[in-house]
Amino acid sequence: MFEGTILSLLPAVVAIALALITKEVYSSLFIGIVCGGLLYSGFSFTGTVEHVINDGIIASVADAYNVGILVFLVMLGSMVMLMNRAGGSAAFGKWAACHIKTKFGAMMATMCLGILIFIDDYFNCLTVGSVMKPVTDKNGISRAKLAYLIDATAAPICIIAPVSSWAAAVSGFVEGANGLELFIRAIPYNFYAFLSIVMIITISKLDFDFGPMSLVEMSHHLEEKSKHVESPTKGEEQPEPPVSTKGKVMHLVVPIVILIISSVIGLIYSGGFFDGVSFVDAFSGADASVGLSIGSVITVIITIAFYLITRVLSFSECMNAIPEGFKSMVPAILILTFAWSLKAMTDSLGAREYVAGLVQGFAENGAVVGLIPAVVFVIGALLAFATGTSWGTFGVLIPIVVYVFGGDLSNELMIVSISACMAGAVCGDHCSPISDTTIMASAGAECDHMEHVSTQLPYAALVAAVSFVCYLMAGYVRSWLVCLPVSIVLMVIVLVIMNKTMRKEG
Asked: Over 90: is that where the pLDDT of 9 sits?
């Protein structure tokens, strides 16, 4: 009854609206899932229960790809706990305190580490979070700001890295054209990705925040200040888990390096590299779920052996840390499970097909052909925001854009439009409270999920607005040599003006 109509987006809209209003994500997602079940079953009680439980929650948890991501999460949580218990994180924090002594330096270090880990956004979020928490904590940066730095680097850097799981996904959605070549040519037009990085650098240098983030940062600053003036006898401190006093920086760095190497090997293995497939083709055909699971399991095993050999932890201490790491990931796993179930509801209602029809109808109107990139960017952002998936958005919009332009790689407007699709998908994914990457960023920073969503939303919206203007320009100029520098200058000018305005008002 409601399939393929605008109401197919209602479950996601309800879940997102409730999450933003109530700041409570679990019940909001569940209500959205139930809403989808009601629409799909025609408001039948038994039909709703069956669709929600069987086709939603159980099907999502039983999906092989999703299970692989959950394994990766659990293994990474265990690895982080092992590094903490071995004293690697504490040693790195002490080292960083000697070498990174400013708030700006801590933010730049976080961004740079995020850029270096360009292989996969899940891997990026959790790894950068675990490594940089001691550094940002020591330099007075709130967990909400850390979550934003992670989130604004993870997906944007993956979508402009030719060797990443995202490049492989995009290439796989392209039919009738060389997917990898198209991806590489589209990189300079991905304004949202580049401007997200520019924004991090600019607001870090200018040292200003706006919207809910400014309130959170101010509150965090006051809390940190009060800690230094309060009597040390005021209140009882909570007991901390045992941490080895033998830990060194290498006890954090070595596992991270092993994880990177193991993940790359796992990805190319899943793509058939060891069966004779070329490296590029193996990466293009890689299964991120399988590859990251293999990499994380191997890393945990090697890490335990490394800690036993260097005698920073005993075998029993290593085994005790593993379930504790699992527990630390339970909130992220629960949110992910509900988010995947909500996606299943919107998929069953034909949300993607509805949006696809709108895009194709507009794209075939030759009178407004120059506006296609800007329109694709907006629709991609809305679809990714509503469904919480950028990869799903790629799967819907990229084939349509390729079809409309006949897969002609010589048509620069098609390249711009493909890039607009990727940028819009990342933008919507970045903003959405039901996005995997947003959930991972919250987990990596150990930040309240809805606080992360509400504080980063104005930042992402500002970058999206500037990107939209740039896609309007690119639809007619069609030269990244002109459009990319102009977009960067425009982003900096907007932020400088905002900074001066806020300081005057303050």
From this structure: no
Q: Are 432 and 331 within 8 A, CB to CB?
A: no
The letter for the amino acid at 47 is G
With CA atoms as reference, report the closest residue to 376 among 346, 398, 406, 403: 398
Backbone angles phi, psi at 436, to 5 degrees: -55, -45
For residue 177, the 8-state DSSP code is: S
Neighbours of 196 (CB within 10 A): 29
* Structure tokens belonging to residue 439: 């959930």
Distance CA 450, CA 433 (A): 7
Residue 282 · residue 271 · CB < 8 Å: yes
Amino acid letter for position 360: Q
Give CA–CA dist 218/224, Å, rounded. 10
pLDDT in tens, 408-450: 677 888 899 989 999 998 999 888 888 888 888 898 888 888 8
| 339 and 434 Cβ atoms separated by less than 8 Å | yes
d(CA 166, CA 380) in angstroms, rounded, equals 16
pLDDT score of 310: 93
Contact 312, 291 (CB under 8 A): no
CA distance 300 to 311: 16
pLDDT of 231 over the 60 cut: no
Which residues, at least 6 apart from 348, have a Cβ–Cβ distance to it below 8 Å?
3, 36, 40, 51, 55
Q: Which of 194-208, 278-292, 340-354 has the lowest mean pLDDT?
A: 278-292
Q: Using CA atoms in the order 190, 195, 196, 200, what is the torsion angle rounded to 10 degrees?
A: 150
Q: Which residue has the tokens 């949006």?
A: 355
Do the Cβ atoms of 479 and 451 come closer than 8 Å?
no
- The H helix count followed by the E strand count for the chain is 25, 0
Amino acid identity of residue 409, one-letter, is L
| 3-class DSSP string for 215-278 | HHHHHHHHHHHHHHHCCCCCCCCCCCCCCCCCCCCHHHHHHHHHHHHHHHHHHHHHCCHHHCCC
- Token match 């809910």: residue? 212
Structure tokens at 18: 């409730």
What's the pLDDT at 178? 58
CA dihedral 12, 17, 22, 28 (to 10 degrees): -10
Task: Tell me the C-alpha distance between 313 and 245, whole Å.
Answer: 10
